[in-house]
């Protein structure tokens, strides 16, 4: 749910926007899409994303046939407005969920969409043919107390996809599922799945 006008992401910024780490206090448009994260909130999100790296490292230590490609590089997270090539929704931002039909708050009232970018030109005989992208994107879902209750992320490396899902097991955020896909396979192959049924 992108904010359609770039000006809307800038003109509402106040001193409170730079100082707050409260997800409920940042600016959202009428569709529930948050603006560019600034100040203390951006730093908080960096810490939250960095905390996900421990699950990637955990998967890298597992006895599974394919390991995660790379960690989330905080320096490559897209926080600022991208150019037209990426579209207005491809920056890291919060999204506020609507209420239920009975007016109640959802279990995960806010989630964070994030994306990293790393690209390189592919050259053959001095001719640039295409770009190669190694990216991670995903969503972190926040409980009402503003802690992460579940998440998913997908790594792309040379058209190979690696998906990880996190969930609460005994109220602790844990690895739930790991899947892998190549251009030759239409569906993900499950590499790991938690035995917990919650």
Please provide a written account of the structure:
The chain has 198 residues and is α+β, with helices and mostly antiparallel strands. It has one domain. Strands 1, 2, 3, 4, 5, 6, 7 and 8 form an eight-stranded antiparallel β-sheet that branches. Strand 7 (172-181) and strand 8 (189-193) form a beta hairpin. 14% of the residues lie in helices and 34% in strands. The two termini are 29 Å apart.
Defining traits:
single chain, 198 residues, alpha+beta, 8-stranded antiparallel beta sheet, 2 helices, 8 strands, globular
How many strands, which pairing sense, and closed or not: the largest β-sheet? 8 strands, antiparallel
Number of helices: 2
Q: Structural class, please?
A: alpha+beta
How large a portion of the residues is in β-strands, by DSSP E? 25-35%
In round numbers, the mean pLDDT is 85
Unreliable residue runs: 1-8
Q: How many distinct beta strands?
A: 8
Q: Strand-and-helix sequence, N→C?
A: HHEEEEEEEE
């Amino acid at each position: 749910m992108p904010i359609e006008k770039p000006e809307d992401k800038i003109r509402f910024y106040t001193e409170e926007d730079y100082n707050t780490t409260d997800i409920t206090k940042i600016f959202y448009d009428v569709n529930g899409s948050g603006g560019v994260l600034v100040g203390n909130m951006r730093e908080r999100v960096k810490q939250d994303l960095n905390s996900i790296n421990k699950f990637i490292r955990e998967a890298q230590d597992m006895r599974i046939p394919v390991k995660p490609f790379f960690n989330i590089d905080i320096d490559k997270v897209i926080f600022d407005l991208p150019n037209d090539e990426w579209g207005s929704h491809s920056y890291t931002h919060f999204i506020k969920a609507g209420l239920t039909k009975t007016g109640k708050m959802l279990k995960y009232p806010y989630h964070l969409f994030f994306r990293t970018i790393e690209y390189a030109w592919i050259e053959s005989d001095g001719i640039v043919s295409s770009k190669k992208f190694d990216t991670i994107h995903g969503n972190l879902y926040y409980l009402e107390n503003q802690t992460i209750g579940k998440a998913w992320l997908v790594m792309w490396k040379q058209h190979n996809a690696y998906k990880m899902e996190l969930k609460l097991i005994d109220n602790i955020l844990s690895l739930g599922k790991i899947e892998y896909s190549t251009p030759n396979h239409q569906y993900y192959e499950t590499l790991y799945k938690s035995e917990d049924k919650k």
